Fold:
Amino acid sequence: MLLFIFIQGLVLSVFSIPMVFYGPFKNTRDMLVTTAMTTLNHQYLAKTFLSEKVIKGIMDENQVNDIEEKTDETAIVIPQSVIDDKVDTNKVDKIDKTGIVYTNVSTGKFKAHLLEITNPARVSIGTSDKIGVSGMKLDAIAKRYNAVAAINAGGFSDINGQGNGGTPEGALIENEKVLFGNSTTKYEIIGINEQNVLVLGRYNLQELKEAKIRDAASFGPFLIVNGKPLITEGNGGGGLQPRTLIGQKVDGTIMFLVIDGRQISSIGATLKQAQDIMLEHGAFNAANLDGGASTQMVFNGQTMNHPCSNYGPRSIPSGFIVQ
Structure:
């Protein structure tokens, strides 16, 4: 993995080890520990030099604040002209003929891509045609639905990194049909209701039905709820990784964000950095989706980012698509 070759060569040199782990550079130490501890094969970078107690303390300090607050759906006011697709796109800056705004939001540390979909009614869940058996690449899911844009969505069973993307983790709902989930469990839900509002919260299947959720996947953490950023201290945990996020503005605009990582040219972002991009661009609600090697964005038939796997984009069970 190029990222960790880079870290080992630059940060963990013989002369740097004492300074990184025992010196005054707390942010650097925390970044390294949270990045290493969320991988399968590189936890030794932290465990070699720090006790389990110290590592746990660092991980705890950098977690996202946990709240029970659910999305205030009444705060999202979607103009009827947007739902009716009657917006004169010639009078709206940066909107192309598809009604989607693309913005390169890269920094000096990572490459990042933002899509803003003005009509949230166009956004839904798309799934593999063999859901429960095997996944599909995101571009194939997009083609299956004739979607103009897509990002990867929920997580999936991935034992030792060898999963085929076929078995979703948590709940999965497509067009009001429950594809995965059991009736007794409360899930971390990232969904869209019949009013085209992005809904974040913990729900069981009955509550999802009552909330009229039409499309949903499970992942997290939630990063912005009702305009409030949930990471107020630390980096949010997870360190530097490829990231995929979904969000919504108060005018209903849906936001897709992907950030490349684990590459020399783009080392990845913390959850805090990803949260701040969404805030900067007006998100009222936002959540983290599956990341890592699954992170991908497709727009107009092209993959906009560079998935970090040496084997190309991963097969996944679901994506948020734009039709």
Summary: Residues 89-93 have pLDDT under 50 and may be disordered. The CA atoms of residues 68 and 201 lie 7 Å apart.
